[in-house]
Amino acid sequence: MNRRNFIKTSAVLGTAASIMPSSLFASASNKLQVGVIGTGLRGQGMTRLLLDRPDLDIPVICDIDNKMIDMVLNVFEKQGRPMPKIYKDGPEDFRNMLSKEDLDGVYIATPWEWHHPMAISAMENNIHVGTEVPAALTVNECWDLVNTSEKKNKLCMIMENVNYRRDIMAVLNMVRKGFFGELIHCQGGYQHDLRHVKFNDGKSAYGGGVEFGEKGFSEAHWRTQHSVDRNADLYPTHGLGPISPMLDINRGNRMVHLTSTASQSRGLHNYIVEHGGEDHPNAKINFKLGDVVTTVIKCAKGQTIMLSHDTNSPRPYSLNFRVQGTQGLWMKDNKSIYIEG
Fold first, then answer.
1. Which residues contact 176 (CB under 8 A, 6 or more apart)?
2. Which residues form the Glycosyl hydrolase 109 C-terminal domain (predicted)?
3. pLDDT tens digits, residue range 189-217?
4. How many CB atoms lie within 10 A of CB 77?
5. Is 213 helix (H, G, I), strand (E, B) or coil?
6. 3-state class of 154 per DSSP?
7. d(CA 13, CA 261)
8. What are the start and end residues of each CATH 3.40.50.720 domain in the chain?
9. Looking at domain 3-159, does it have CATH number 3.90.780.10?
10. Which CATH architecture has domain 166-339?
């Protein structure tokens, strides 16, 4: 099966799974058996949603953070569900879970760098995958996911929730019906003040201090380090995910090259000084991530895409969507649609 046919088939199977899940997955039980790797706040929220389904069980979970495990067990208790088996013996214990347990699928909500090895291991053990974004951190890792999915004939779904917003799906329908004419340019991005997410007091998930890493809690425990080590668009899928089907990416169109430029890095340092003082140890850290990262992508059929990543500065939330064609456009920020004629 070639990649284009694989993508089409996966989309059809994904729809079928949402309608008739028990007919797609082979399990000894009448219910889908889904494991959860990563029981942080995101994992807890998704676990709650999964347990709302009467046709699904979560027999096993995996994490190395005892506090988060205790929190997700409360979810099982409140839902009146049996307590799951727990794998927590070190960061590689997920491999034991995936090789020993009889699972139809696995949901992954761990720090970003673990998404790729966990997804690969699951598919190699004949388990379907749903992974939080980003699914991979390098181009080679992306191809690993595609190649393993094809080889093992297992679904690997990137859990990009913005694709399924009602406004996004409405605009996608308008694009496919030709309301905007031929598309020529699209914009999207992640413009979200995350300073209170990247730093906290080590006890609460959001704000209250300027700690991160070993002294941070929840996402500040791991996510902020990417802003120290990398200068890039760290979170492109909120914008690129919804735009891609509108431009038929991997459905006859493709992205051919890009340029990416970053501004200077100021916001995270200033936040530390303002809330922790100039003498705080974190005030001496050099953050590589530019405050605003702008990426321009050229498509094989001529269209351009502009993505923005802006998470270190005071600003309102915006995904900066714009879909422009020869006969009109949609702009999210001012809630406008313009159709010529």
1. none
2. 169-341
3. 999 999 999 999 999 999 999 999 999 99
4. 10
5. helix
6. coil
7. 38
8. 3-159
9. no
10. 2-Layer Sandwich (3.30)
